[in-house]
Amino acid sequence: MFSKTCEYAIRALIYIAQQSKDGLKVSIKDISLGIDSPEHFIAKILQQLSRKGFVKSVKGPNGGFYMEADELKINLATVVREIDGDRLFTGCGLGLKACSELHPCPIHNDFKIIKENLMIMLESSQIKFFVDNLESNLTFLKC
Fold first, then answer.
1. Which domains are seen in the chain, by residue range?
2. How many other C-beta atoms can be found within 10 angstroms of the C-beta atom of residue 33?
3. pLDDT for 41-87, tens place per residue?
4. How buried is residue 18: exposed, middle or buried, by Cβ count under 10 Å (0-12/13-18/19+)?
5. Are 56 and 66 in contact (CB under 8 A)?
6. How far is 139 from 14, CA to CA, in rounded Å?
């Protein structure tokens, strides 16, 4: 459903938020290990997330990535739109270019409901919610 880049971005944000809640800064290596992602790939993603203001970073031996209270309020729909664009919310389920209400594909009506529900879920899901669930051991980021 999400691109691999988007999956890693979401996982990285949740991991950084969890690890930096006590003022800690997290290294790329620790993030990579914590979310089971390739280090070079997550470095590129984190650079993009930092430029967009989703995370903050500090260079140097005691540096790393961290998030403050404002960043914890970011919802997943914002992250998905920034990384993957709007296609998940507006695109055709079969990938057709001309799919619309007036010219629907075979799954248009059913897929429209799924897209609407997905948008509602992602817009109402803030990073903080996932950190809270991790800390309560209700969810996990790595097997």
1. 1-74+126-143 (1.10.10.10), 75-125 (no CATH)
2. 14
3. 999 999 999 999 999 999 988 889 999 999 999 999 999 999 999 99
4. buried
5. yes
6. 11
